[in-house]
Amino acid sequence: MIPGQKQLTNMEELLEGIWKQNPVFVMVLGMCPVLAVSVSAMNAISMGLATTFVLVGSTLLVSLLRSVIPKEVRIATYIVIIATFVTVVDYLIQAISLAVYDALGAFIQLIVVNCIILGRAEAHASKNPPLRSVLNALGMGAGFTLGLFALGAVREILGAGKLFGVALFGPDFQPWVVMVLPPGGFFVLGSWLLLFNWLNSRKTDAAQAKPVEGHAHV
Amino acid sequence: MNEPLRLELRTSPHVVKDNSVERIMFHVVLALLPIAAFSVWQYGLSALALLVTVTGTCLLTERLFNRLGGTASTLSDWSATITGLLLALTLPPAFPLWMGAVAGFTAIALGKALFGGIGFNVLNPALVGRAFVQAAFPVAITTWIPAFSAQRFSEFAPTTFTLPFMTPPDIGDWARAAVDGFTGATPLARWKFENVLAAPGDFLSGAVTASAGETSAILILLCGLYLAVRRFLDWRIPVAVLGSAALTAWVFQMIDPARYPDPLFVLLSGGLMIGAVFMATDMATSPVTPKGVWLYGALIGVVTVMIRYFGGLTEGVMYAILIGNALAPLIDQVTQPRVFGAAKGKKA
Predict the structure, then answer these.
(1) Interchain contact A178–B (C-beta under 8 A)
(2) Distance to chain B for A54, nearest Cα, Å
(3) Predicted TM-score (pTM) above 0.90
(4) Is the pLDDT of residue A214 over 60?
(5) Measuring CA to CA, how many Å separate B223 from each of B51, B93, B137, B179, B288?
(6) What residues does each domain of chain B span?
(7) B132–A178 CB contact, under 8 Å
(8) Would you tell me which of A121, A180, B189, B197 could form a disulfide with A62, CB atoms 3.0–4.6 Å apart?
(9) Residue B106: closest CA among chain A residues belongs to which residue?
(10) Do B166 and A198 touch (CB under 8 A)?
């Protein structure tokens, strides 16, 4: 740990990725799969779970090996570790559901280059013991899945009138074609970011409005 | 009577006429009213309901974002009214009202409020709204109704009151019952897919299938002329747009007269007229340098004709203007006039 930085409790470590450091809405990382596979809620959740699996597996291994991996080749080592788990998850999804596998397409293999995973390995797992790393990875994975689901649900509801393939509005629903097209992904992501930032700015405004007590934090 | 002659000395500015944003915008609204009235006369109650709904949604959205942003109300500057009227005039008259509301909300929210409100928008808000519904509801936005049907003031088109989020009903039978021989295709679509040219007279009388406000070419030109004479719009832009479109069309017709229509058809059909006069001239989204204005207008004209002739869509004015809007800052940059007295080739 960096001296002086407040040590997070295990619970905080887990919750970090879900809200405060949400990879989709706060860090805005891994946008490629977020925009590409969030056409439906099912695809979004599958992608989120696959990424979470790779994230947890690779951070555990990186954390365990953190004193063994030479600093000079650490990135290459991380990629090999991540690629191993991606291969596992690739075959796993193929075995569980071929439909989901076809829907996600190349984006399963592309989890290798997802910057959330490499980022966690470099910034967190290589400096923290296994338990903390795994908790953090779980939180990040859950936050990523949540973000993907938030996008996928809106796009599926407006773009097809369904949620998880169940029709919500009956047969007369007018699909918003744009929502299943790439622009729809950008519109919905932008709207969610807007909402998040608006909520956060309201919170900081409210905090600033309160009289400052005691010492100031830097 | 025998007062000494007083000579008043004042410093500049000497022009004290109050040329405010509100005043200009108000006159644009005035200039749009005859066009809106003509479209109501042409298409009846459905067009009126659409105009009211879309403009109302735009105003409400503007107010909502004023509220959220904690700024003073900007409703009184008329800009949201213009966006609403223009947007409604570019939609098919029988467009379902709920989709009109979606277009109005998108226009103000996405096209204007998110950039910081009036003067800060990069693209024309009305066209952002239209582009969104064009992409979202491609069928509804190409469903047309006949002009001057007998019952236009006694009944609404069956699509107008479609329940929100529901598919509008098919209006083919209703439209054919209203006007004999109605094909449901715009002149541009008929030219593109059937190679049938509409007579120029039909455009002038408004007896064509089209969006609510794009048929009355003479009226649009007159209203534009009024604004241009009062210096509320830059006359160079419509002249450049229409001129370059006509020139491009003329060149193509010279190459292959059997395949390409005459320039007059290109000028009168579709939304080119209203786009050139009212949308391309939006002050916030067009260039400001004298040379840049010509370049911008010419670009819009050429792109429009190119999309019409070679694109998948039958009409290209909307995208041409949006492209022009997006390039406007760049055009301004490359057409900066030389500062008087500054050395050539040197940056000021």
Answers:
(1) yes
(2) 36
(3) no
(4) no
(5) 18, 21, 31, 30, 22
(6) 21-143+145-184
(7) yes
(8) A121
(9) A187
(10) no
Q: Whole-angstrom Cα distance, residue B163 to residue B143?
A: 17
Query: Which among B286, B273, B297 is positioned nearest to B330, based on CA atoms?
Result: B286
* Closest-CA distance of chain A to residue B169, Å: 9
Residue keyed to tokens 């190679």: B195
Residue B95 CA to residue B91 CA, distance in Å, equals: 7
Cβ contacts of A194 on chain B, cutoff 8 Å? 114
> Does A3 contact B at CB distance below 8 Å?
no
- At CB < 8 Å, which residues of chain B contact A? 68, 99, 110, 114, 132, 135-138, 140, 162, 165-168
For residue A161, the chain B residues in CB contact (below 8 A) are 165
Within an 8 Å CB–CB cutoff, is residue A192 touching chain B?
Answer: no
Residue-wise pLDDT tens for chain B (348 aa)? 567 778 777 777 776 666 788 888 899 999 999 999 998 988 888 899 999 999 999 999 999 998 887 888 888 888 899 999 999 999 998 899 999 999 999 999 999 988 888 888 999 999 999 999 999 998 888 888 887 877 778 888 888 888 888 888 877 777 777 676 676 677 787 777 776 777 777 777 777 777 877 778 888 899 999 999 988 888 999 999 999 999 999 999 999 888 888 888 888 888 898 999 999 998 889 998 989 999 999 999 999 999 988 888 888 899 999 999 999 999 999 988 878 777 766 554
**Ordered alpha helix ranges (H), chain A:** 10-16, 31-36, 41-64, 74-96, 98-104, 115-120, 130-160, 177-180, 182-209
Number of H helices and E strands in chain B, helices first, is 14, 0
In chain B, residues with a C-beta closer than 8 Å to the C-beta of A198 are 68
Taking an 8 Å cut-off on Cβ atoms, the answer to whether A174 and B68 are in contact is no
Residue from B99, B166, B170, B319 whose CB has the most chain A CBs within 10 Å, to mutate: B166
Residue count (chain B): 348
The helix, strand and coil proportions of chain B, stated in percent and rounded to the nearest 5, come to: 60, 0, 40
Looking at residue B345, its pLDDT comes to 60
For residues B62 and B125, give the distance between their C-alpha atoms in angstroms, rounded to a whole number.
12
CB contact under 8 A, A187 and B167: no
Quick check: A176 and B167 CB within 8 A? no
Is B124 buried (19+), middle (13-18) or exposed (0-12) by CB count in 10 A?
buried
Rounded to whole angstroms, the Cα distance separating B76 from B60 reads: 12
pLDDT of residue A1: 45
Residue at A168: amino acid letter: L
Give every CB contact of residue B271 below 8 A, 6+ residues apart in sequence.
Answer: B90, B211, B214, B315, B317, B318
**3-state SS class at B165:** coil
- The Cα–Cα gap between B314 and B311 comes to 7
pLDDT at res. A33: 86
The pLDDT value given to residue A91: 94
Chain B contact present for A91, CB below 8 A: no
ipTM, 2 decimals?
0.78
Mark yes or no for CB contact A187/B140 under 8 Å: no
